[in-house]
Specification:
About 25% of the residues lie in helices and about 25% in strands. It is an alpha/beta fold. The strands form six sheets. Strands 12, 13, 14, 15, 16 and 17 form a six-stranded mixed beta sheet that branches. Strands 9-5-10 form a three-stranded parallel beta sheet. Strands 6-7-8 form a three-stranded antiparallel beta sheet, covered by helices on one side. Helix 2 crosses helix 8 and helix 2 packs antiparallel against helix 9. It binds arginine. Arginine (ARG) binds next to strand 6.
């Protein structure tokens, strides 16, 4: 990842973004071109907060850029003017595990899509960087942050254990674990889980509950949640513990075969999803949080919830 001298020189300056979005959602990173030259930017934002980002002239390469998207100008952290090293190459490399609908899944074209993917692309647009998504195993994400990937978005629950290795953005979604059972199962309470064969996705909070909190559980760990559900249908496990929204998706995918039971019934606590970022990258943390705040304020967030989660 090559550093841009222009950007380093610029300090609080902007890196201009030329968006050529064909899609109506305007979030397609493949069609987003970041202008490496970073010189003579003309941005026409009306937002006073972004005033420091407008009309910057840096003569690093002599190109003249016009940002055609009013949202594309808030690259530098508003308070400090700092730009994260992770973004210096104009690319935000994002790890996910696209086995977790509706937050992330592989679409018909073989590309990762879903709520989280759309959200991080919207954040990338705010930051003026291209978003490249790496699909990997969920259990490998935390260790890859700061090396193979810049950040991870994967319906990842904020936990103290993970906080020892990474920092988390502000939370963007509330979650709870659900229990998927075969139609007609008599599992209905926390006590009923004792001694059961429980399927989970490896390294998830569902795994931690089954492994640490359920007495005598025989835990089967899968790389993909859907494989756990298939083994449930085949009778190899008695239930699957997985987050609410994926549980509801699987319930409708395998309608008539399985039921998704609310975690409240099992006294599972609430969880919060957040974006995991390299520990100690304060500039990136505040840039991501600011972008998230803007996306919530301007209605984009609610639109994505409607598009991906509520439909
Ligand atoms: N919320 C759970 C956790 O953080 C499960 C997340 C699984 N995400 C995924 N993309 N497979 O452990």
């Amino acid at each position: 990842m090559k550093k841009l001298i222009a950007l380093l020189l610029a300090g609080v300056m902007t890196m201009s973004l030329l968006t050529a979005c064909g899609g109506s959602d305007g979030t397609n990173a493949d069609e987003t071109t970041t202008d490496a030259a970073g010189a003579e930017n003309e941005a026409d934002a009306a937002d006073a907060e972004d005033a420091a980002d407008t009309e910057n002239e840096a003569d690093a390469a002599g190109a003249e850029n016009e940002a055609d998207n009013a949202d594309a100008e808030s690259e530098a952290d508003a308070e400090t003017g700092e730009v994260s090293e992770a973004l210096a190459d104009g690319v935000l490399t994002v790890g996910t595990n696209a086995e977790f609908p509706p937050f992330e899944y592989v679409d018909d074209n073989g590309e990762p899509d879903g709520f989280d993917i759309a959200l991080i692309k919207a954040i990338g647009e705010k930051l003026g960087v291209e978003v490249v998504v790496e699909n990997m195993e969920f259990d490998s994400l935390v260790a890859a942050i700061g090396s193979k990937i810049d950040v991870a978005i994967a319906g990842m629950t904020v936990t103290d254990e993970r906080k020892a290795s990474v920092d988390f953005s502000d939370a963007y979604y509330d979650a709870v674990q659900y229990v998927i059972v075969p139609e007609g199962s008599d599992i209905a309470s926390a006590a009923d889980l004792s001694g059961k064969a429980i399927g989970v996705q490896m390294g998830t909070t569902g795994d931690f509950i089954a492994s640490d909190d359920v007495e005598g559980a025989e835990v089967s760990r899968y790389n993909k949640g859907v494989d756990a559900v298939n083994d449930l249908i085949n009778g190899r496990v008695d239930c699957v513990i997985i987050d609410k929204n994926p549980a509801l998706v699987f319930e409708s995918t395998f309608e008539g075969q399985v039921k998704a039971l609310p975690g409240e019934q099992f006294e599972f606590g609430t969880e919060e999803y957040a974006i995991a970022i390299p520990k100690g990258d304060g500039a990136l943390l505040s840039q991501v949080n600011k972008a998230l705040e803007e996306i919530k304020a301007d209605g984009t967030f609610d639109e994505l919830v409607k598009q991906y989660i509520e439909n």
